[in-house]
TrEMBL record:
Its EC number is 4.2.1.51. GO terms for cellular component: cytoplasm. Residues 199-277 form the ACT domain. Keywords: Amino-acid biosynthesis, Aromatic amino acid biosynthesis, Lyase, Phenylalanine biosynthesis. This is prephenate dehydratase. The gene is ABSGL_04775.1 scaffold 5911. The keyword Zinc-finger does not apply. NCBIfam families: PRK11898.1 (NF008865). Gene3D superfamilies: 3.30.70.260, Periplasmic binding protein-like II (3.40.190.10). Pathway: Amino-acid biosynthesis; L-phenylalanine biosynthesis; phenylpyruvate from prephenate: step 1/1. One of its GO terms (molecular function) is prephenate dehydratase activity. It is an enzyme of class 4 (lyase). PANTHER family: PREPHENATE DEHYDRATASE P PROTEIN, PREPHENATE DEHYDRATASE-RELATED. PROSITE patterns: ACT, PREPHENATE_DEHYDR_3.
Length: 284
């Protein structure tokens, strides 16, 4: 996708801002100075910027290797009118930033993912500090810079951007803490021969084995499954929307036949996009 963007003019990409977030780092790592970056206040705004034509593409965090799926992204994908067209990965190192010493910190701001990725360190070193969720890690840094006794969990680059001291580095739990991002647009790219497809569907919860029957279709068509998520639909209690990522491109015969068969067991089946597989063999 980076190569195709280089051929386009006036390309803008919406991301979860303000500057200094991991979304900002991920998109800059992928596209460099070839595009215009448009910061958004929250993840839902990134989707809306693409849907309403205020940005050519958007980048949203999808899952973290330590703390799992990003629920804000999944929740908007329930109703999103966009297509996934690419993915990218960023190794994430969390820092504790503050203008107060460690023993004077009584509150910690971060995005829920930041708090989740560092919960072991926080329990060991700041067990009494309040943990306060905000819309982004950079917003956390901005907030902490204005308060005595406040700290932020965010990237090291926020230290320079928001005038904070680095109290502790690499406080995330787990080796090679990595966040996966999806790049969204109004359409997906053509097949590459090594692609993944993201699907969304619901099932009739009163029908025994409906989900099992639906999943078996992918095995029958020789398609591998890489990720399955569920989120409340919001329509009624205990009704869920499922997200499934499989091998293959939506334009391939295998995926098209699988989707056709899936409609026999599942409801509201939708293809959310196909994209080149960026995982290494060791990640699969």
């Amino acid at each position: 996708m980076s190569a195709s963007i280089a051929l386009q003019k006036d390309v803008s990409i919406a991301y979860l801002g303000p500057p200094g977030t991991f979304s900002h780092q991920a998109v800059y790592q992928r596209f460099g100075d070839s595009v215009v970056y448009v910061p958004q206040k929250q993840i839902t705004d990134v989707f809306e910027a693409v849907e309403k034509g205020r940005a050519t593409y958007g980048i949203v965090p999808y899952e973290n290797s330590t703390f799992g799926s990003v629920v804000e992204t999944l929740d908007y994908l329930i109703k999103a009118n966009v297509k996934v067209r690419s993915e990218t990965y960023l190794t994430v190192h969390q820092c504790l930033l503050s203008n107060s010493p460690l023993d004077k910190i009584n509150k910690v701001y971060s995005h829920p993912q930041g708090l989740g990725q560092t919960q072991e360190w926080l329990s060991a070193h700041l067990p009494e500090a309040r943990r306060i969720s905000v819309k982004s890690t950079a917003q956390a840094a901005e907030q902490a810079s204005q308060e005595i006794g406040a700290a932020a969990i965010c990237s090291e680059i926020c230290s320079e951007l928001y005038g904070l001291d680095i109290v502790a580095r690499d406080i995330e739990h787990g080796v090679a803490n990595t966040t996966r991002f999806l790049i969204i647009g109004t359409s997906s790219d053509a097949p590459t021969g090594n692609d993944h497809t993201l699907l969304r569907f619901t099932v009739d919860h009163r029908q025994p084995g409906a989900l099992c029957d639906g999943l078996k279709i992918f095995k029958d068509h020789g398609l591998n499954l890489f990720k399955i998520d569920s989120r409340p639909s919001g329509l009624r209690p205990w009704h869920y929307v499922f997200f499934l990522e499989c091998s293959g491109h939506a334009n391939s015969e295998k995926v098209q036949l699988a989707v056709k068969d899936l409609n026999q067991y599942c409801l509201d089946v939708a293809i959310l996009g196909s994209f080149p597989n960026e995982r290494t063999d060791g990640d699969c």
